[in-house]
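Question (not urgent): is this output format expected?
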Amino acid sequence: MASPRSAATGGLGFRGVGKQGGNNAGKHSGSSTNIPVGMGHARRTSSGRFMNLSRDESELGAVTDSEMGSDFLYTVQIPATPDHQLMSATPSNRSVDIAGKAEQQFVSSTIFTGGFKSVTRGHVMEKMMESESNHPQMAGGRVPTCAMEGCDGKAMCDERGENMAPCDCGFRICRDCYIDALNGKGLCPGCKDEYKVPDEPLTHTDVRRDDLRALPPPSGEDSARMDRRLSLTKQKPALLMGNNTTDFDHARWLYQTKGTYGYGNAVWPKEDGYGGDGGGSANPNGPSVGPVPEFNDKSRRPLSRKVSISAGILSPYRLLVVIRMVVLGMFLAWRVRHQNQDAVWLWGMSVVCEIWFAFSWILDQLPKLCPINRMTDLSVLKDKFETPRPENPTGRSDLPGVDVFVSTADPEKEPPLTTGNTILSILAAEYPLEKLAIYLSDDGGALLSFEALAEAASFARIWVPFCRKHAIEPRNPETYFLLKGDPTKGKKSPDFVKDRRRVKREYDEFKVRVNGLPEAIRRRSEAYNSHEEIRAKRSQIEMGADPSEPLNVPKATWMADGTHWPGTWTQSGKEHGRGDHAGIIQVMLAPPTHEPLMGSADEENLIDTTDVDIRLPMLVYVSREKRPGYDHNKKAGAMNALVRTSAVMSNGPFILNLDCDHYIFNSLAIREAMCFFMDKGGDRLAYVQFPQRFEGVDPNDRYANHNTVFFDVNMRALDGLQGPVYVGTGCVFRRIALYGFDPPRAREHGGCWDFICCCCSGTKNKNKIIHAKRVNEISGMIEHTSDEDDDIEASMLPKRYGSSVVFASSIAVAEFQGRPLADKGVLNSRPVGALTHAREPLDASTVAEAINVISCFYEDKTEWGGRVGWIYGSVTEDVVTGFRMHNRGWRSIYCVTKRDAFRGTAPINLTDRLHQVLRWATGSVEIFFSRNNAFFASPRMKFLQRVAYMNVGIYPFTSVFLLVYCFLPALSLFTGQFIVQTLNLSFLIYLLIITVTLCMLAILEVKWSGITLEEWWRNEQFWVIGGTSAHVAAVFQGLLKVMAGVEISFTLTSKSAGEDEDDIYADLYVIKWTSLMIPPITIGLTNIIAIAVGVSRTIYSTIPEWSKLLGGVFFSLWVLMHLYPFFKGLMGKGGKTPTIIYVWAGLLSVIISLLWLYISPNANNQLQGSGGGGFQFP
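Got this back:
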């Protein structure tokens, strides 16, 4: 059924995808006027857009197009002057506005399903959850029914949920009946008068004819060709516009051109100066006008700046690094020259391990030589993008759109309440509502996640206005209501206490509903299934079949409106299993209106929202299609599905990626990221990474869950190079960087490394050819080229991005919208005010296209996962994705805010923590054995950045040497030998210098990074624990995958809290046995037994060698000190050691004793026969 839509909407919408109807499609004339297809008379606005002119506005009067001929079609371009300010065209027809809102209301009330080789279906839902919602943007709200006889549909409503009648008589009518009336006689069923309809027929067209940045799809005559041009008329450098800017500076025009608007408007100095104190010669014949004025200074202030580390800290730090490197080289040379002739095998193993440790330390230390800090200025961001200006007189936000991705896969391990709190924190973020769109990816396709999201959207109508009214921080309700201290501190509103109490009560009810969803879904499904069985039994009896025959009634999972859930059922059925279900899209909250929508003080409202904007950002539930026998590529595949879905539905030029347990702790976090992207040179940034901060970690941070050394030391240091690595969450991406394009003005970093890697000149030339090709690809989407180029590029699109024309059309729009504002010295910019126009209403065809791009076979024979989007082939897809961007020349930024931007949860249980580290290390091993190894990086990656990525792939292999080295003290004590012949002065001096320099480096790192020594020491301890357990297993798993093709599978890290609600750290003491614990237990017990054996032998020996005992005991205690948190974790709460620990301890003691007797029986016989001074095993 056709949807009444406007043929021309006002301004550049977020989706920006032009869809032409058959009547409007036509061939591009190719003329230099660049008039949009189907446009007769138009004029361009100051932002480069075209506005339709009516017959009355045209100078041709009553002359028609047919009379004047195509040769007389023209475009009038009127320059912007202070006396002539052009205004953007906005649709004023009432029926067009109503039709768009009705279509969007229909979309938000419909759940869309479909997939590969299946029909896309839309099921209109009466309600999405058991409780009733009354928010106007949400489906299932309290909406009056249609007044048409025999129709029970919902009447069309406006932004406030009130009746929106298309006729002055106020007759309530639903969307379908309204379309039927328009397509019929066009009469209102109530008053029988004609509807006021636009001049052009209302269809499903989505044409943006007044916006040249909208990209039309191919015409019917030439479906193979796609006009993917951005169609922006290139503006010549003008004196009035500064450098590459379209901001009309009126004062600069007056002063630089000596022009005038009438007489007496300006006092002009002579050529020799401005007189007075202006620095030039005085002007005796006229008044002094002062120095040369500076214009637009406020708008040209930088949005961000670097803050260098103090030279008093950084210079000694770098000096100590050099000293320690020199000492390490001298020490290793001394160790190689001085062998231990009594135990060459012990000496050889120790030297090999020490050489590797030195190499590993250098790889880790070199990228830390250039740490920096950064600061942002949010006030400048507001002045530039949200303050009234001549180009934006209304002061509407000119910030780019942001699509937020939240991923979840299993509601049992990722509690829906946690996910709901994350969604609520995003909905309440301080960012323009019409520019924000949230997408939840439910990779499990669970009804529990769907209904929990619906509950969160319903509660948001209370929570979000409350946060805006009282400036609540943080905006995660669970965290906010658990804060200790006075909640009224800093709150000036007299009704804060009352509002807080009411919202707290509502949140408690919300928690009860969400936590009760599993039981509610189970009981509902059982009731419906029982009813279906009764109906099937009755039908069986009526048909005369044997009643004893079993019934084949599927055990379905039922939605709240009494229909089958199209996703995964609790009891898996055909096409309803975890890996076998259709794609699902449900718009939970429709896109908000462009204008603010203030609340009221009605009694129905929980709180008084008179001066509060009650709109909510768009919220969409997405579950991609899954089918058996197809590799869905885990989280990376889900993220790529969201990239395509969001490109079709909202097309925000920036993407914020969050895990379901990471919420927005600082409501200004997105604005902080925009300060970097919109600043000078921001067009070369691929992503802005925020540090991960965690809650619920035990106060002592036993297993280094905060990981502060990595986030505050390593990542800050990488920010001084080419940028931090991508860590999987808390990251804002530039969409165009995910599409595999090269950055503008990419640089190649020459040097000795290029000479080594590029042995032949052909490699470098090849890189230049590839770079030129990619530059032409992106420029071809934006600028006009020949038709031959159109054919080539259009044929390449399906191979790269898939068959969706709508998605391909959105690429250039996203690239343009992500540019910084035009200003002096800003390259690759966009005009001021280009993004201040209203968003297009969603329609059914758009959501149907979104269903198409999430089908499981869409990525076949494309570059998705290879060059485009999140990269496949590794369990650490985040690191690989960031590496590919840096390898193409993009930069990244590390944004550390004064108030933490995001916070999440971390596994405080030892077993969960080890499995988490195992997954990371296994991904690093995969990277090392793949083409993503930094050794093969392109010349666009800086040398130290390459070293950092090399360390990412190499660090797990250190575990093999660490494992051997941790056994060396025990072997030394068992054999009575040591790694050196004797503990001479040279060895001790080297050891002392290496240890002291390491401690001094740690102190300086603490100084410039802001961490504590305790955190540094915890990191060192867990490095040994992980290196002797998870990293070793990762190396073997990686080798098995590379050599034998054994695939690696991991389970999700559980994010649910412990069973003991009174103790938030109860999970810390839970012992879950895993084979990863065997190596550390073995090392610990071996060293303890070895210390006892060594001390006993030395005491009872005829000639005791105390120096060797001292060396062996010292290094054994060093190992045990690092393993202390591990053994403390094995003790459990209250020192309760599991029985299996005793079993392993006894077993290993016996094995080690027998091995010692077998390895050195002669030495034991000599000890037993030497008289009473010998030591004997009992």
